[in-house]
């Protein structure tokens, strides 16, 4: 069966299990030792030709209001949650507008954009533990959130619902320079900024930088921005493309690093870097898994050789 993925790679799997209600968890309790792939909207994976195992797709899409939080099904489209929050005066995730994928994918990578990370709003995650074959609820601390990381990267859990606690009053996070610049350029007065205006601004910024995967197949940022010790860097290295972090560390722009070595790359005709953002790799049509992985390894090797900086691939690689 064909596996949907935003990079447009041809991929099949041996088996597929759909979780449409919590009653369907009984099927997971009977799983053997076969290899498992938990697949949401497929917006952050690079898939091999054939997955010789069982794919689990969670299709729970309900939103339930509880006393202290809202509980959201993992299968809900992320854009639908953003819209729900805007309509229902739940604030804090406006900066995460227009991130492709499902709600269930958000905790896995601890998605973040324009100074906001989703872990700040997660109270707990309801999931099925594939090791113990039991339903569990992990609190925020147990999720082990870090930059683009969580316990869910271990693939031991099928995320079913996420319980969020959002802000009841609007206090925009405008810490990210690109966001401030956009508001300035568009003559948007911060004092009169509304949640909808902030969300729309983020959407416009993302549209100007990132292509729609439905039109130009991609998985967003192909590499993470590396965080390195500040003392290992020359003071002017990557000036304008680096950001100071806490405790003597600096985050570097992977996009800029790629630009500096791009002339030395051998890029197949089936692939290209997006014209407006060199951290986005586009499938021009007919790209193979091997071509993609070969190019990514080539980039990592050249950047390490030239700058002694180790890049980490952002999407999950699922080889055949």
What this model shows, in words?
- The chain has 320 residues and is an alpha+beta fold.
- Helices cover 22% and strands 25% of the residues.
- It has helices at 25-29, 78-87, 105-109, 177-185, 195-209, 254-261, 289-307; strands spanning 12-19, 36-38, 45-47, 50-58, 63-65, 70-73, 112-113, 116-117, 122-129, 134-139, 157-164, 227-229, 242-244, 249-252, 271-274, 277-283, 316-318.
- The model has no long low-confidence stretch (mean pLDDT 94).
What is the strand and helix layout of this fold?
Layout: E1 12-19, H1 25-29, E2 36-38, E3 45-47, E4 50-58, E5 63-65, E6 70-73, H2 78-87, H3 105-109, E7 112-113, E8 116-117, E9 122-129, E10 134-139, E11 157-164, H4 177-185, H5 195-209, E12 227-229, E13 242-244, E14 249-252, H6 254-261, E15 271-274, E16 277-283, H7 289-307, E17 316-318
Parallel strand pairs: 1-4, 2-4, 3-17
Antiparallel strand pairs: 5-6, 6-11, 7-8, 9-10, 9-11, 12-14, 13-14, 15-16
Task: Describe what is shown at a glance.
By secondary structure, the protein is an alpha+beta fold.
Instruction: List the strand order in the largest sheet.
Output: 5-6-11-9-10
Question: What does the overall shape look like?
Answer: globular
Strand content: 25-35%
Question: Number of helix segments?
Answer: 7
């Amino acid at each position: 069966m064909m596996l949907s993925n935003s990079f447009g790679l041809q991929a099949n799997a041996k088996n597929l299990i759909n979780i449409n209600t919590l009653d369907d968890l009984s099927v997971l309790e009977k799983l053997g030792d076969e290899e498992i792939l938990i697949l949401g909207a497929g917006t952050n994976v690079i898939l091999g030709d054939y997955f010789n195992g069982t794919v689990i797709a969670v299709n729970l899409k309900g939103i339930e209001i509880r006393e202290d939080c809202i509980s959201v099904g993992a299968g809900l489209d992320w854009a639908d949650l953003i819209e729900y929050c805007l309509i229902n005066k739940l604030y804090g995730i406006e900066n995460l507008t227009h991130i492709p994928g499902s709600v269930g994918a958000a905790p896995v990578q601890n998605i973040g954009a324009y100074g906001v990370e989703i872990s700040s709003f997660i109270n707990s995650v309801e999931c099925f533990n594939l090791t113990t074959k039991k339903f569990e609820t992990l609190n925020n601390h147990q999720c082990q959130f870090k930059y683009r990381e969580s316990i869910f990267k271990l693939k031991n859990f099928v995320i079913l619902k996420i319980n969020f606690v959002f802000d009841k009053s609007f206090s925009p996070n405008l810490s990210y320079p690109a966001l401030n610049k956009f508001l300035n350029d568009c003559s948007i007065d911060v004092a009169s900024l509304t949640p909808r205006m902030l969300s729309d601004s983020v959407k416009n910024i993302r549209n100007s930088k990132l292509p729609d995967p439905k039109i130009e197949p991609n998985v967003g940022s192909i590499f993470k921005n590396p965080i390195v010790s500040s003392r290992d860097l020359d003071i002017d290295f990557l000036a304008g493309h680096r950001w100071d972090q806490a405790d003597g560390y600096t985050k570097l722009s992977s996009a800029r690093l790629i630009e500096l070595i791009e002339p030395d790359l051998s890029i197949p005709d089936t692939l290209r870097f997006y014209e407006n953002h060199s951290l986005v790799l586009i499938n021009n049509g007919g790209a193979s898994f091997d071509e993609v992985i070969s190019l990514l390894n080539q980039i990592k090797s050249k950047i390490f050789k030239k700058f002694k900086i180790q890049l980490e691939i952002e999407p999950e690689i699922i080889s055949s």
